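Run log, item B.
One chain of 363 residues. Sequence copied directly from the ordering sheet:
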Amino acid sequence: MVEYTSLKRNYDMYAKEYEEAALRALRSGWYILGPELQSFEEKFASYLNVKHCIGLNSGTDALILAVRAFDIGPGDEVIVPAGTYIASVLGVTENGATPVYVDSLPDTLLIDPSKIEAAITDRTKAILPVHMYGQACNMTEILDIAKKHSLPVIEDCAQCHGSTWNGIKTGTEGTISCFSFYPTKPLGAWGDAGAVVTNDDKLADRMRLLRNYGSRVKYHNESIGRNSRLDEIQAAMLSVGLTHIDECNEKRNAFAARYLSGIKNDKVKLPYCDPKATHTYHLFPVLVDDQEKFIKYMEEKGVKTQVHYPIPPYVAECYADRGHKWEDFPNASYIARHEVSLPMYSGMPEEDIDTVIQAVNGY
């Protein structure tokens, strides 16, 4: 059976380095806000060529606290893509603000910049693009709109560690950018972990405050923050992963190239990458005529697949009172009902690629 992903194989590639890093952190006796975190924050900021990285306990907290850092709350609106994972929207609603959805592009499957401006009102306080699947959004158009309307851009970079738009790394052009280091991500921890990055000194200071109970000095709480600190062991593991991130991205791009050249089936629409963008291929999303039929067929051929994401946030049960329907965002709805992700991870055996291609071509 071809696994959809395997964290064990990803671990095995650099097992000795991970084990040494974990033991170093354990033996230090310092597990929260210590030298491992400071070292990772400096290294990740340097990798992206930004001034500040603030480690947090998850990518979701990164989104929640980034929105909070702008004092966005009840009565305010934030532009979000209709086609995204619900965490992007939770970052808005957890602060009491209202998500305003913008439909997806039918080719890249990312937010459609041409529809953003029409969604802006006098209550709009930020634009939150999501670099879905690992491909960079059209940051040129998004930043132009944001500048025109004096709006901050909060980038959701949960799936795109190392991807670029016009040669510039994602996460470096927005006002603040949010990363998840969930284990399956291009840069993954061995548990929940996240971070924000920014070039804004004041925003960085506020994020450090918010992640630590709103406190600089113990028991002196200036803001309503939360406990959202990236621990020392995860920081140590991420430092190891960071030394291999470009190598792993190259591997997934090589696997993707084989899929793109080897899969030849009119019933399977392959992913499109904008010529100005680069892709981490965190996911390899294809569009098929019948989701359930394709998934069952691939399983019979010994290949596991997944769907990202079958229930868009605008029709999620938790937001049912907001009154959105599937037909409100036709492209995002189509993608949700027709997308299937093929196996894709940096530790994937070469022979599995051939098995997947053969199976897809036989559909």
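Observations after the first pass:
- The domain at 245-361 is CATH 3.90.1150.10 (Aspartate Aminotransferase, domain 1).
- The first helix runs from residue 7 to 13.
Flagged for discussion on Thursday.
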